[in-house]
Amino acid sequence: MRNMNDQSYKAPWYYLLLLILAGESVFILPFVLARVFRPTVLDAFGLDNTQLGLCFSVYGIVALISYLIGGPIADKFPPRKLIAVALWMTALGGLVYAQFPDYFTLRILYGYWGFTTIFLFWAPMIKATRVWGGNHSQGKAFGFLDGGRGMVGALFGMLGVIVFSLFITTEIAEASVQDRQVAFRYVILISSAIVSVVGILVWFFMRLDDEKEKSLVLDKLSKDKIMQVLRLPSVWLLMIIILCAYVAYKITDIFSLYAQDVMLYDQVQSAKVGTFLLFIRPIVGITIGILADRTKTTFWLMVSFFITFAGALLFATGLISATSTYLFFISILIVALGTYAARSLYFAVMKEGKIPLVLTGTAVGLISLIGYTPDIFAGPTMGYLLDRAPGAEGHQDVFWMLAGFSFVGGLAAWRYFVGSKTWERKE
Q1: Are 416 and 238 in contact (CB under 8 A)?
Q2: Counting Cβ atoms within 10 Å, is residue 287 exposed (0-12), middle (13-18) or buried (19+)?
Q3: How far apart are CA 309 and CA 252, in angstroms?
Q4: Structural domain tally of the chain?
Q5: CATH number for the domain harbouring residue 277
Q6: What is the SS3 assignment for 3?
Q7: d(CA 316, CA 413)
Q8: Is 59 a domain residue?
Q9: pLDDT tens digits for range 254-270
Q10: In contact, 371 and 58? CB cutoff 8 Å
Q11: Residue 348 gets which letter from DSSP?
């Protein structure tokens, strides 16, 4: 029997491809559509920024519980089965979303998605990615995962913009809310259908050999195993690192709104900005993943935070206005480079942090309990800042928030970088 913690096994290439498809598809309905079509979502559902942020908060509260309970479940069952069921359940929620429910129902729907996308999905995806990465390709595995997810998200965004444009029968500036609802309904339904198909592909084709699949499953998760994970300093540092990196990622949601409010773009042009941002993600993820495996993953994680910090200052200081088109796109590139690099690498350092492969689900659940709390507070905070001071001032406040979290994340990543050398000597 192969040792449970052996990472020499190499899963086939299409295993990672299916992980990439699943990894972004499951978040298309709750997040990607709102990121690309934020102005349209606000109008079609009759929401302001704070209300949309509170929907994300409901998602985050349910997700918080789901991280904690779902993590250990990922150590009890094969990843492909959990992932496939999560995709199908998420797609069902799209049928409700397409009816443009009232605000109360929308919050319930986001709570439901908090369960479907996290409880059965998140920890199994991270564990499966570690399996594919083996002993020597963790940076590549997670870089390809996040970069590939970015490409899938970008393609969904591009498809959504095309579908939306096709079903708008008048000039976008003259289109009524009802016209935009009709067009956006097609975007939602097509997205839901694709998510369902990806679930079928995962169920039937994302298989490992029987021996490896059994080696990834614990017969019993004891209190001692949980304490073993909690005693690792890397687990506590990753809580801080992921929290700060995830705040940065959530703030990228407002770039399409920034394009409308500050750069004075229309809704289709704003959606194209959001889609452009999604195309940056795969380039960054793949490049940083390859680079990290050839050098030191923890070093590049640290650097990524300080790049994000520099980009945040460009927006926060008010240098970018409606006449600064080139600077606007350059600054987006800087923030995206740092944010997507950090996102690609923060789970890739688990091996350097001496977190056992077989306990990945439990570790991810515990780390995520703190690391993904921005799902609760980031949306309402951004919404409050944007609604309190509409226009450029509100956006600058959001980017000061980004600068602060990026600086703290950089300090935690530096400590992880230094600590990883000590953990290696103790092994």
Answers
A1: yes
A2: middle
A3: 13
A4: 1
A5: 1.20.1250.20
A6: coil
A7: 23
A8: yes
A9: 888 888 888 888 777 78
A10: no
A11: T
